[in-house]
Amino acid sequence: MNGKRLLLTGCNGQLGSTFSALYKDSQLAGRYEFSSVDVEQVDFKNKESILSVLSLNNPSIIVNCGAYTSVDKAEEEPDAAFKINDLATTIIANWSKENGSRLLHISTDFVFDGAKNSPYEPSDETNPLGVYGNTKLGGERNIRNLLPKDGLILRTSWLYSEFGQNFVKTMLALMSKREEIGIVNDQIGSPTSTHSLVKILFKIIENENASGIYHWCDGAAISWYDFAVEIQKQGLRSGLLEKKIPVKPIPAAGYSTLAERPTYSVLNCEATLIEFGVPKVDWKKELNYVITAIATAK
Predict the structure, then answer these.
(1) Is 132 a catalytic residue?
(2) Does the model's pTM come out above 0.85?
């Protein structure tokens, strides 16, 4: 070890769980003293709690995966979403500025309104449609203001893994119980495996001079319906599903949610591919990896 310390927040979420699992065998493991926290160790709604954990761990780099991610519930709990996604992020960024620490922060496609019909660039104008997107954007802005050279924001979309709850696991559960399901086919985006996202995070950590805003997703431009169809296909192949059921396309207008979703939120990842020297990924192969992990764990 060379005295550098890495602190992961949100370690029990699906992204944090994947980060911890892959970190052990990564090249970074020998370079940093690694520590991780979640709600059991830190209250993101309490400034003193956040500062206490930061002072105790004294990280030289923070990977902030902690967030309020319940998009619909955020409409009913705007204060909690603001405190966790905006205010807590600002507290962390300010501590990082005062202590010479680097901050890598995970953000979202929900900072965009979906009015565009080509992949969003990191520099495109933001216009969130709801509380979740607004609070995540607030956190972004404060990082950029406080840490212009030591802060990096990585936006992603449609995140899933073998950990926690997500669209893939929900679809597998519904497909095993129901005779048919209807899935929205007029919202277009890109699924992102936590495994591909963590590998990019490792590359970003290695590039100590990188800062600003970057995008990462698994490269598809598909609907939730398209995603569900592929999940069923791979679920059947892996043995997680016993029989094929009809998956029917429905308009978003026919599926009521508290929060409005962007109709198009594909992210342009070209700058990330070039800056960090990584190849494009195949979203179906990434899904297969996670489906296999879910099947193996059963």
Answers:
(1) yes
(2) yes
